[in-house]
Amino acid sequence: MDGKEFIKNVHKVAEEKGIDENIIFDAMEQALITAYKKNYNSKTNVKPKIDRETGEIKIFTYYIVVDDYEDPEVTIDEEGNEIVTEPKVPVDAQILLADAEKKVPGIKVGETIEEEVTPDDFGRVAVQTAKQVLIQKIRTAERESIMADFQGKEGELMLGMLAMEDEKNYYVDLGRARGILPKSEMIPGEVVKMGSSIKVYLQKIEETTKGPLILCSRKHYNFVRRLFESEIPELMDGTVILYGVARDAGNRSKVAVYSTNEKVDAIGACIGEKGSRIANILKELNGEKVDLVLYSEDIEEFIKNALSPAKNVYVTVDKESENNEAFVVVSDDDLSLAIGKHGSNIKLASKLTKYHLTIKSMSQVNEEGNK
User: Fold this and answer.
1) Model pTM?
2) At which of 292, 308, 331 does a domain end?
3) pLDDT tens column, 255-287
4) How many distinct structural domains can be found in the chain?
5) At what angle do helices 299-306 and 344-353 cross, to 10 degrees?
6) 208 and 284 housed in the same domain
């Protein structure tokens, strides 16, 4: 790669990758300094010059005129550690005024003398350095560009393709990047095939030296929230508000909604005509049950709704408690429904309402009252 080809490549990379040409040239100059020191001279007072039109590269050594030599200052701190403070002008680059005047009559303190020291075979080193810098800048630009694409998408739902798997993870092709979907973040019991499309919740996005680290989930409660938002237009336009989601992935979710328009039934909007909207959501959840709960500012009413499918429910909130506690009484027939299998229903109702619920049947209350 000769000088003109190098300049041509710089222009091409700058245009295609959206990099400022000056950044490439600055990086190239820093790399050339390192290459020169490594291959020819370990002194620090060198600087390259790149002709921005021809690509010709020259190496110069420079000296700054001083009144007197200044050495690094060594001090000892309170803990006995040696601290070295370098002079403002590097030691290699200092030249006394008297010596400088022999080279450049009339020169003054603070001015600089430059001398070309380009080695005869430096072109080979320069070519290799140029290639390395361009490759590195392309990689950096691509990482930054990909990160910019995903910036702000944390917490969103994306459609990807299952590209590969290992013992612990699936890897999801999201276009310009791959997301990591831990098998522990899958919906329990679901089976997937490589090459198939899959919706994932972008739980966490971090920038790394290899590009963005995108951690995905299908188990997160917000996966259900985003599914609802993608299927129900009223949630997007604000006619219906999704208050909260409580989830036991693979088993059951409770989704609390309410309407800002008295003419719109919030739960009906989520179900859709002939159940079409909720059916799409349930299909994506691999058979996980979803209870639609009508949110109410009346906390007792909200708790009652959250304990669905139990119907005969009576709630008393302990207003003196600082720990959000409520006492629930249900009919004998509804006790098992209110509690749910392994206590799942009441646990989800508690998560959704943010209240600790103590539940008893009507018979238990009557027995205690008769004692």
Assistant:
1) 0.70
2) 292
3) 999 999 989 999 999 999 999 999 999 999 988
4) 4
5) 150
6) no
